[in-house]
Predict the 3D structure of the following.
Amino acid sequence: MSFLEEFQRWSFPGVQQRIASSNGARVEQALSRSAGQLDADDLIALLSPAADAALEQMARQAQATTRLRFGKTVLLYAPLYLSNICYSQCTYCGFSYGKDIRRLQLSPEQAEVEAGLLHAAGIRHILLLTGEAYRESSINYIGDCVERIARSFASVSVEVYPLKTEDYLSLRWRGLDGLAIYQETYDPRRYAAVHLKGIKARMEYRLECPDRAGEAGMRRIALGALLGLSDAASDVFFTALHARYLMQRFWQTQISISLPRLRPATGVDDVASIGDRDFARFLFALRLFLPDAGLTLSTREPAPLRDELCGIVATQISAGSQTSPGGYSDSGAARQFEIEDRRTVRQVADALAARNLDPVFTDWSPALK
Amino acid sequence: MAQSDPQPLVIAGRSFHSRLFVGTGKFASTAEMRAAIDGSATEMVTVALRRIDLSRPLEQQDLISAIDRSRIQLLPNTSGARNALEAVQLARLARELGGGNWIKLEVTPEPRYLLPDPVETLAATQELVKDGFVVLPYMHADPILALRLQDAGAATVMPLGSPIGSNQGIRTAESIRIIIEQARVPVVVDAGLGAPSHAAQAMEMGASAVLVNTALAIARDPATIAEAFAWAVLAGRSARLYGDLHSSERMPAAASASSPLTGFLGRPSQDNSGN
Ligand code: SF4
């Protein structure tokens, strides 16, 4: 039993069609339910363009729900790129195999130095990233980095190629408590079109990856869709279903969702740009459907938008991010994507405080692993 | 009789068009019990194994032969069992005698309130699931226990509304609400439903089904009250499908809020051609 079975009961074009044909009455019905009591049809209504007219009401309900469940707090974390070596070919990614970029992999010692810079800035929740390179970024290598960094960070997550359950378990023993794995798109047709080569091209293996992490007892799992690859609302729908499934099956694990928006400039030209109103609606709908899911905003989003959305729905944001290996100490290696919010950790924290929100750096203890 | 639900309830691959389950204890006669079953239009009937002779095939016994098993799922229950061992033994015996592999698990060590023992219920569920049973455990309205029972492979969870035979209705509403929100198996509210309005309330809250026994057994006219329960279940279910009626987190649709939250997002675009 994995999410694949539930996934196969739906069709992507079918969902897309239902989202497109929803209406105001259906939106109203969905909004009459308490947060957490919505079903898949309600979610479809709230993701649909018909819900735009009710955006303000959605925002109010989403804000009230967020405050009830999370209080006035926002968790800050930072990514640390260990390597940009990658043998997969994803058309939208700056690290894609065959791209003529400066490749670099930090040694575990260098990674610890980089992490130290984040630590000095106040960061205590960290996300370690690599490309898909099993030889260079082996499980053992990832484990070495995790182990060093876990000594001084409250929470260490990884975003790496999909692993087997036993590999997640072995990393858990070395200090890992979280996994981020984005499906990118749940549209099988588009998935195949943009993932040309490498293990990432195996859509189903990736879909089942959070199940394997859950089986390994991972404390937190982050899901996401790269909005713009296919019909965005439908991808949000499937991400939400996936999250709900995981919350039910692995009820001891915290689930969070991120919806990075793809920019047309990054190498795929057939990408629809997602407007801010649509983006906000997706987040509000997710909050009402899944009151307890963490909602994450990346530094791809501009600072003013991030601040506003933290005031309504977002519960965790990355801060002071660099998206290249060695980026914090200025290695000059290539970045995965360009960031929009270039503020320092301090500046982000101050902006949250100015909105009467508490920037939280630690909500976990390694003793709980 | 009342029309059936548009979406049947599915438990362990079997579809139920009625979401009212009926218990067979405490009736004045088998005839009254049968009248209640007919009036309710139920498709799931539970029978206490301690009330039948476990030394001969079940089909030859009055209580069982009164139930039309072509239409109704027989759900033997282990009431009276004080621990997991006793419950498992009863269940196996029932299966050997032709009672099928569905079992309503009841482990109630104290005889006054008949409250279910969480520790023994979990242990018995694990054992019976391993042994191939479809297990429907009776439990207190404890959300974590509900999750544990689901992990153990329970086919449903059956939290109590109030103690068995108390007819007090749903006194555990907030916990049942959480159980329903988190459940990945059907939630059947069992015990304490004394009036049709209690059953309607359970369905409005999102329960998948309810189980009623005492309220029918002690009624002056069990058949009529059973029918009233059937209507109440449908009414509550329709209300649930319609939308949430009493909601604590629901916001007033205040269109005239002083400072809109979404002002920073600009006006809706007239031209939605991008979508
Ligand atoms: S998205 Fe990941 S797997 Fe794909 S090219 Fe980029 S780094 Fe490699």
